[in-house]
Amino acid sequence: MNLSIFVPTKNRFYYLSKLIKYYSSINFNGELIILDSSDDEIIENINKLIQSFKNLNIKLFHSFGLPCAMMKKYIDEASNDYVVFSGDDDYFVKKGMMDCIKFLEINSNFSGCNGEGICVHSSSKKNKIDYIDDYEQANVNGINSMERINQQFNKYKVPIFSIFRKNYFKKFLEPVPTKEVFESSCPDKAIADEYIIEGAMVAYGNIHKLNSPYLVRHIHKERNIDNLVPDFKKDWINTPNFEKSKNYFFIKMSEIISKNDKIDIDQALKFFNEKFNIHLNYELKKEKKYILKIFLSKTLLKIRPIKNLRYFLKRNIFTDKKYSKIKTNKDYSLIINSIEGKI
Fold it and tell me: Which pLDDT does position 164 carry in this prediction?
């Protein structure tokens, strides 16, 4: 498969081993690029793990930094024409990957492609699936950067799990701060490692969404590595690093918009400032609306019988993504078995 998958990881041998076993089970013949920031004792175990899978093409690099900064450092190690980012607990469906690459090969006016996504929640035990729901991905199509950014920031959907052409992916990584300048230029993790690359992805090209099963995200207690991102945006915007990082982000995005759309940089900056603030205000209002509900939910879920009943209802009744339906789906079943420790 003409695809390189970047997998940043840090001290999560359990999840990485499951991911590698899954790709071995589907005979993935693309390229896995593991970007490892683990401690020394875990690095040794990862080395042994990778050496045991002879049917996979795996490149392993030990480095420190946020995932996007590490991808920027190692992007030229990708041997294939198409590139995608993956967490060490995210899974791509084989047919979905092939469908996306096929789409891009015959549609040169698109820089990226994705498919249907689901989130598999393991709130009680990491190998037990409590419930499953949808994971919406970006579907952006416009004649220029401003039109695409307008679409994206009016109703934000994540583009980072799309498969992209490698030459575009390199462009997305250009504004990402390196490890060396992170603290001085853009010290906020959410901006440096999420918003910048996703803003660039939308600014540089169209992203198509197919109806094929494509992505499974495993949501569990250990996802927020080092607790670098606050749970609520109301807390995030008041962190000491937010304003400096936001200014860096706005400058980088206005430079991209100005160059792509051939407009004055001040006009581009004004436009992007407006669109980002619309997005942020929407998120803050939505969060405020549901914050009491979230608090009550977390309080009630400390009572085990109530928590178990909620998970049962969400897993089997009040969802379009019933566990039994996903479990027997030929595209998803191997991934579900991997998460549950059955392969």
Answer: 98
